Automatic annotation (TrEMBL):
Name the UniProt record assigns to this protein: Twin-arginine translocation pathway signal
Organism: Actinomadura decatromicini
InterPro entries named in the record: TPR-like_helical_dom_sf (IPR011990)
Length: 423
């Protein structure tokens, strides 16, 4: 029996026993989900809603996969047992999933380089490249936590292989390891575990430097800047994007587009609602510069392709205009592009964009419309567990304060309360 099956059976027993006189489980999965959420730090952000978490519990108990590092401490608190007692089989068979500090990963790669003597097949690089591309495709249809165990295990295997390979294959494998670290950083970021996201972004930077590829290093800085934007650190965003753009002449168009648009977010975050017009003008200039480069994006790199998607820069414009309180301009864009965004099928991204659209409606003093749009977002946030949506809904709640005692404000409060208070 696999480690996941053994652990799943154990977790199910802990939830169900002791059964009542009718043989019914002691606690339902919904009750167990509530207990896990209650065990979390009150300041924690991004845990799924009760229904979504109950579905995840069912998957864990079936042995589909093992609870990730976010949930293991919660199980330990609820059951009063040590993590090693609950998840020991997984820790022994797939330790990289549970480890989230850089030193063990780095030392593991170093140990691998000392013990590996067999040559590394170049075909493995193509295999991992295909795996990473497949993960990004799967991510469009799954919640943020489902792919973490697999991707983390593959990341460590890549580090193992890269440490024993010779150039130029060695550099390509480190490049792929950076790509996996970026993907894991993104999953944790979307799931709301920003500490672990920061850890994986830092690993990406280190692995990118090992690849000796300045384009990848610049992309890693952009990714870290994107995380800082989620943290509201506009000046930090500009520190990192400024470092990228300082080397602009040697960078491919894709990297420059990504850095320019992220700079616009940094400017708008630093200005906030206090903008007198200068920030909006600077954001517009940065995105105009990016728009002039988009048609020139034509490279072989598998990452950063979002900048070539329809309405990519329109989304960035609408976002900074919403952030700066320019609701009329923002809504003109949101209403024009939203139908096409919905058709794209990227539900988590669209949920974030709709929440921002709702913020713009609130800023334009259309609370009923804001709440109508928010209702669509709440449903998707519950299903996917996306913390990005929850953060945007929290911002909407702040903009809806003038109507807190009126019908729209009460409706929104009820929606957010239905998400377990974590919106």
């Amino acid at each position: 029996m696999s480690a996941a099956k053994v652990i799943g059976a154990r977790l199910r027993r802990l939830r169900e026993e002791p059964r009542d006189e009718h043989g019914r489980a002691h606690r339902s999965r919904e009750k167990w989900a509530l207990m896990l959420r209650s065990a979390a730090d009150p300041a924690a952000d991004g845990l799924p809603g009760i229904k979504s978490l109950a579905k995840m519990i069912a998957q864990w108990e079936r042995g589909d996969h093992v609870p990730g590092p976010i949930y293991r401490p919660l199980y330990a608190k609820v059951t009063g047992k040590a993590e090693a007692e609950l998840f020991g089989e997984a820790m022994r068979s797939s330790a990289p999933v549970a480890r989230h500090d850089a030193l063990p990963l780095a030392s593991a790669a170093g140990a691998a380089s000392r013990r590996r003597s067999a040559p590394v097949a170049p075909e493995l690089a193509d295999y991992f490249a295909e795996q990473l591309a497949g993960h990004y495709r799967a991510d469009r249809h799954l919640g943020p936590f489902r792919l973490i165990p697999t991707a983390a295990a593959q990341y460590e295997l890549l580090c193992d292989l890269a440490a024993g390979a010779q150039a130029p294959l060695r550099r390509r494998l480190w490049s792929l390891a950076a790509g996996f670290a970026a993907f894991l950083g993104w999953l944790y970021q979307d799931g709301g575990d920003l500490d672990r996201s920061a850890h994986w972004h830092d690993l990406m930077l280190e692995r990118a430097h090992r690849s000796h590829d300045p384009q990848l290093v610049a992309f890693a800085l952009h990714n870290k800047a994107m995380l800082l934007a989620d943290l509201g650190d506009g000046r930090g965003v500009l520190d990192l994007t400024g470092a990228v753009l300082a080397y602009s002449p040697g960078l491919i168009p894709k990297v420059r587009v990504l850095a320019l648009q992220q700079s616009a977010h940094g400017v708008s975050l630093a200005a906030g609602d206090d903008d007198t017009g200068e920030a909006a003008d600077e954001c517009a200039r940065l995105l105009d510069d990016a728009a002039a480069l988009v048609e020139r994006v034509d490279d072989v790199y598998p990452w950063g392709g979002a900048c070539r998607t329809t309405h990519y820069l329109d989304v960035q414009r609408a976002t900074y205009l919403t952030r700066l309180g320019r609701a009329d301009e923002a809504l003109t864009i949101w209403e024009r592009i939203m139908p096409a965004l919905v058709e794209s099928g990227a539900r988590r991204d669209v949920g974030v964009f709709k929440a921002r659209q709702a913020q713009a409606y609130a800023s334009r003093r259309e609370p009923e419309q804001a709440v109508t749009v928010a209702g669509e977002v709440v449903a998707v946030a519950e299903e996917t567990g996306s913390a990005r949506m929850r953060r945007e809904l929290r911002t909407l709640g702040e903009r809806m304060r003038p109507w807190a005692s009126e019908r729209p404000g009460r409706r929104l409060a009820e929606m957010l309360a239905g998400m377990g208070g974590h919106a």
